[in-house]
Design goal:
The chain is of the alpha/beta class. It has two domains: 285 residues, Rossmann fold; 123 residues, Immunoglobulin-like (Sandwich). It has nine helices and 22 strands. Strands 1-15-2-14-13-3-6-8-7-12 form a ten-stranded mixed beta sheet, with helices on both faces. It has a four-stranded antiparallel beta sheet with strand order 19-18-21-22. A three-stranded antiparallel beta sheet has the order 9-11-10, with no helix packed on it. Keywords: Methyltransferase, Restriction system, S-adenosyl-L-methionine, Transferase. It comes from Hornefia porci.
């Protein structure tokens, strides 16, 4: 691969793939509304949560969205951080019982090599163009592996005249080599759909030579601890540190991008209320930033760890959203799809002379039934030890729906691990109309386990 003829074939095959792709029907699995009926971040004027997380193949989602009038041409910002064709496998690094475990996050190896990679990426970009607003921008985040091919493909899909910028994101992290200069930057290609794209010029400091004042007429100068500077239009080289090991925003997910990078992208091309999308959302940096800045979002990933990391991150910052999947999960206690089991103790205490009761839910032991294929033995040993000695450390988050309708999990209580701490007890007062209680538990590897119990059964057990 490497000739113009090969790229032409890539685009032709990607167009056929788009034509042959069937749209998917996604089912609502979960709805998180931290205000329980009141307006939440990212909500539309009608009060319904417009933020959506999709668990599944993004090309089927893209095809489905492109067929709907409400989404076609509506996205003001599309940011994607796809695999880079690094031909490597990536792990999430998670802390359990004082030790790190490595959990497979995603695989960047391709059976058809570079041709297969570019065809898959191109097919998705074709559909994204249909979703991009006339005044929107798409940001494609890659690095040295394939950005030169992607630039030609983007020229073909969006038009070479609609190229806006190539952002160089430079950082200090990364390995060096004795056979080349250290590769310490990523490339972000920015394209529009028309010449009428929305863009807010951002400013940055430009320090004077020797940090001394120029005193030019009509030029406003400022001074800080480093010296004198002026404010200029931001350049296309951005120096932003990667997410450090001790950073408060660190999730442990492989290739996590810093919030500062996404804040700059969201700020420069969207306004509050605009709809943003990330179809390779990973640990959820774009959704988290968009919601915090008053934008709505669509996020998608095919990895359970990525989806649950995003859910936990959004819950921790008080964002409302809905979660969709192509196939409804089997939620019965001990369901076959679950890779682990957790004990959940429920009790109900009735108040004398009242029709209300106090429900207490307490987490118990955790049993990991099936560890991921490809996990290193050292990590397996840490997990087995935690199961014996401190099983609750394997739980990353849990939530409780006290009025479960049998279809959609709508928790009124959500608990996410904060560093080392996780609340393992939930108490709530319920009325006589309490039907069922559903508890969702997520372990540190993104696996999910549900316990679903009728309230009448809890009452009978409590007596």
């Amino acid at each position: 691969m490497g000739t113009l003829k090969d790229l032409t074939k890539v685009i032709e095959q990607a167009q056929r793939q788009v034509a042959n792709t069937r749209s998917a029907e996604f089912t609502v699995l979960e709805e998180v509304d931290p205000m329980r009926g009141q307006s939440v971040r990212g909500a539309d004027a009608g009060g319904t949560v417009d933020n959506k997380i999709y668990y599944g193949d993004n090309i089927r989602l893209l095809k489905s969205l492109a067929e709907k009038e409400e989404y076609r041409g509506r996205l003001k910002l599309i940011y994607i951080d796809p695999p880079f064709f690094s031909e490597a496998r990536y792990d999430a690094v998670i802390r359990v019982s004082g030790s790190n475990i490595r959990h497979p996050a995603y695989d960047d190896k391709w059976q058809q090599g570079l041709y297969g990679y570019l065809r898959q990426l191109t097919a998705r970009l074709i559909l994204m163009r249909e979703l991009l607003a006339e005044d929107g921008l798409i940001w494609l985040h890659l690095d040295w592996h394939v950005v030169h091919y992607a630039r030609i493909i983007m020229d073909e899909i969006f038009g070479e005249k609609n190229f806006v910028n190539e952002i160089i994101w430079t950082y200090k992290s990364g390995g060096s080599s004795r056979r080349r200069f250290a590769r310490k930057h990523d490339n972000i290609l920015v394209y529009s759909k028309t010449k009428h794209y929305n863009f807010n010029v951002l400013k940055e400091k430009s320090y004077n030579r020797q940090f001394k004042p120029y005193r030019f007429r009509g030029v406003k100068e400022y001074r800080d601890e480093q010296g004198w500077y002026t404010m200029v239009n931001m350049k296309d080289v951005w120096q932003i540190d990667m997410v450090g090991r001790t950073s408060a925003e660190r999730t442990g997910y492989a290739t996590q991008k810093p919030e500062q990078l996404l804040e700059r992208i969201v700020e420069c091309c969207t306004e509050p209320g605009d709809l943003c999308a990330d179809f390779f959302c990973g640990s959820g940096t774009l959704p988290a930033v968009a919601a915090r800045m008053g934008r709505s979002f669509i996020a998608c990933d095919r990895g359970r760890l990525a989806v649950e990391s995003t859910i936990g991150r959004l819950c921790a910052q008080g964002t409302g959203f809905r979660v969709y999947a192509e196939e409804p999960e089997h939620r019965a206690e001990g369901g076959r799809q679950s890779r682990f089991e957790a004990e959940v103790h429920m009790s109900m205490e009735e108040f004398p002379g009242s029709d209300k009761s106090l429900v207490t839910i307490r987490l118990g032991n955790v049993l990991e039934r099936r560890l991921p294929t490809g996990m290193e033995e050292k990590s397996r040993t840490v997990i087995r030890k935690a199961v014996r000695n401190s099983p609750l450390e394997l739980i990353e988050a849990w939530s409780v729906d006290f009025d479960y309708d049998g279809r959609v999990h709508r928790p009124s209580a959500v608990f996410v691990r904060n560093k080392k701490e996780l609340n393992d007890v939930c108490r709530q007062i319920v009325g006589p109309d309490c039907r069922r209680i559903c508890v969702k538990i997520v372990d540190v590897m993104g696996n999910v386990f549900y316990v679903d119990r009728p309230c009448t059964q809890i009452r009978s057990e409590s007596r």
